[in-house]
Amino acid sequence: EPEEARLAVLADNTALAQTLDEAMARLAAERPALEVQLTARHFPDLHAPVFSQEELAFARALGTLRVGLPLDGGPMASLNAAGEVEGIARDLLEEVAAAAGLTFAYTALPLEEEPEVDLSAGPHCAAWQGGEQTMPFLVYRCALVGREDSRGAAPVCVAVAAGVGQDAAEELCPGAVLMPMRGDEACLDAVLDGKCDAALIGECSLPYLTGNSRWDALKVLGLGSEEQHLCLRVPAGEDGARLVELLDKAIEGLDARAMGNAALWDARRRLRPARLANLVVRYRSQWIAACALLLAALALLFWGVRRYRGRLRALVERCGELARLCDHSQEGVLA
Q1: Is residue 133 packed enough to be buried (19+ CB in 10 Å), middle (13-18) or exposed (0-12)?
Q2: Are 22 and 7 in contact (CB under 8 A)?
Q3: Kind of pairing between the strands at 119-123 and 78-79
Q4: CA pair distance 282, 334, nearest whole angstrom
Q5: 223-242: buried (b, 16+ CB within 10 Å) or exposed (e) per residue?
């Protein structure tokens, strides 16, 4: 059984005990994955997978594997300015690849057609018949988002982002017509444009709702109770089965599920500072007006100083003379 470590405080020092309890509760709320991160830092080889020489040779013979990642437009998987896929899913897969001795090259996975890839990431599906599936390397929940003025009626048409499983759709919007979209942002925009009643997106994209004025008219209608399991899908065949066995050993050894949850929390914390910038964007017209007034006031002050420079100098000199007269008068009174 795991042992619990506690801090011992003198019995009469209740204030210190209360302060420590509050600090630990705040730490648990802000950094729930701290234990996992500390374990990985101080015991990096604690759960390191052990591969046979045959498995390592098989991994080297595979070369670079092309991995298709579905884009959600948020921190899970998105395109950067260079057109490369980045995000939490890629970071975790890099850890898995390094542990298994594999090399991954990433490409965006469109919804309309399946590109030429060796592996593809997607929700774990028991009914998937395309080949083998690895164990989950990322666990998250889904959220149903609709308009603020919605009256609680069940949505008829729902925009669904990539990476959302069928079980989440059946739980949050049973019987609704599902409309696949290219990412969470496209889903939210479809709700604003009236193309659908609600959107089903990943939980880690929710901070965008509270930090972007673009979606002020939207609200969270519900949060899925079932976790979504993101796994790698491998084509059927003998090599595919061996590759799945290799990846499963790497994922299990790295405890990637816990790493995935830690990555979600880290992404959520990284998004918080962006809210200040979003507030500036939200009230940009007011900020522009205030800056214009400030510049006008400074320009008026500068013009006044230049125009009445002589009078101001004379006024300053007169004030100096009055000050000297006051000093002489005070000396005479004292004398």
Answers
A1: buried
A2: no
A3: unpaired
A4: 65
A5: ebeebbbbbbbbeeeeebeb
Model confidence pLDDT, tens digit, residues 291-319: 888 888 888 888 887 888 788 788 888 88
How buried is residue 300: exposed, middle or buried, by Cβ count under 10 Å (0-12/13-18/19+)?
exposed
Handedness of CA 117, 91, 243, 163 (dihedral sign): negative
* Residue 12: its H or E element: none
CA angle centred on 86, ends 82 and 88, rounded to 5°: 165
The amino acid at 21: D
For 153, phi then psi, to 5°, come to -70, 150
pTM here is 0.60
Cα distance between residue 228 and residue 233, in whole Å: 15
Helix (H) or strand (E) holding 79: strand 78-79
Alpha carbons 130 and 165: distance in angstroms, whole number: 16
Cα separation of 335 and 329, whole Å?
Answer: 10
Tokens of 278: 């979003």
Alpha-carbon gap, residue 203 to 272, rounded angstroms: 15
Q: How confident is the model over 73-126, as pLDDT tens digits?
A: 666 777 888 888 888 888 888 888 888 889 999 988 765 455 577 888 877 766
